[in-house]
Amino acid sequence: MPIPHAESDAFLADEGCLYLDCAAQGPRLRSVHDAAMAAMELTARPWNPPPVTPQALREQLRQRLARLFDGEADAIALVPSAAYGLATAARNLPLGPGDEVLVLDGQFPSNLMCWQARCADVGAALRGVRRESGQDWTSAVLAAIESSPRLRIAALPQVRWDDGATLDLDRICALLQSRGIALVLDLSQSLGVLPVDLARWHPAFIASVGYKWLLGARGLACLWVAPHWRTQGSPIEHHWYGRDAGPDWRFPLAPPTPFAAGARRFDAGGLDGLVPLSMALAAIDQVLDWRPENIATALKTCTDALDQGLVQAGLSDWRSPGHAPHLTALRPPADRMDAVFAALKQDRIACTNRYGLLRIAPHLHVAPADMARVVEAAARAA
Fold it and tell me: For 177, left (φ over 0), alpha (ψ -120 to 50), or beta?
């Protein structure tokens, strides 16, 4: 069932402000805010046991997050950041001297720095994909794979973080699989909006933050782990969350306490706060209730309205071709960038300047008609 653009009541907002920066921080749901306040009240009285333990909340969250993938809770690890999850992937995937790791030029640093470090450690090479004039990212990635006989790992997004450009992962992954190349995905700019097709993509690891399109709290992210690594992988840190201590909860000197089932071995320590767990649960429940495919359809009407408005205003070359349904960017000339950004701010339109691009990332608090404000402000400063 389509989502009406009356969902603005579900979010906290300042009247008159048009918030278009979900790619940086998702807008705050009222249900998430209420969950945070209730959890804060509970933590103020630590002598009273909470009605639900942090361990139970973690498992509830794991089960909900799994529904964005294949429904298998054992596949999900809870981590503090996408960077932590991607570093876990870099730590585990085999890589040797002379091998190559593929990334996009200008890729978000969380999915870059861990590979820089890993390549430096083992004598491998990092290969950055750049687009030729008129070339899309998918074609550029496919060409790079074809020309890289030593490629062992491809670390990619589904949607670029700066302008919303999408990669055709179906085509890319088919080529990767034919060559035995491992795939690591950072879905921080798409999970919660775009579908995940594990059966086609066959990734080794997928990481995503929880505070952007999943509308949750900072400090709590997820890591999906392929079956092989759930039994063979080595975690970054060791703590009792990731171990199966049995009913006696004992940790002998020898033998080592066995790992907990599935991807739980990769859980990070310290993720037992009632506040972030409660916020994340309230957020994922709302995302699942709306359904990501419905969210994508609704947000596409907003970005389509923006594109159409730019054409009508004579600013068609300011559009970002091939963008995702939920994420795009304005491309004003360099000499007008500061003026356009200032005009948007003056009209209380919140977006982000990323390397000469004004990123536009709405959620369901925004209606297609709101995009006229963006076009009008941009046209005044053009």
Answer: alpha
Q: What is the pLDDT of residues 116-150, one digit of tens each?
A: 999 999 999 999 999 998 899 999 999 999 999 99
Give CA 241 to chain center in angstroms.
24
CB atoms within 10 A of CB 57: 21
The C-alpha atoms of residue 131 and residue 134 are separated, in whole angstroms, by 8
Distance CA 336, CA 378 (A): 10
Q: How many Å apart are CA 66 and CA 321, to the nearest integer?
A: 32
Q: What are the C-alpha distances in Å from 22 to residues 2, 167, 193, 210, 275?
A: 21, 20, 12, 12, 21
For 291-381, the fitting CATH number among 3.90.1150.10, 3.40.50.1980, 3.40.50.720, 3.90.950.10 is 3.90.1150.10
Positive or negative torsion for Cα 46, 49, 50, 52:
positive
Q: What share of the chain is helix, strand, coil (3-state, %, to 5)?
A: 45, 15, 40
Distance between CA atoms of residues 316 and 264, nearest Å? 48
pLDDT below 50 — which residues of the chain?
1
Q: Give yes or no for a cis peptide into 255 (omega within 30° of 0).
A: yes
- DSSP, collapsed to helix, strand or coil, labels residue 131 as coil
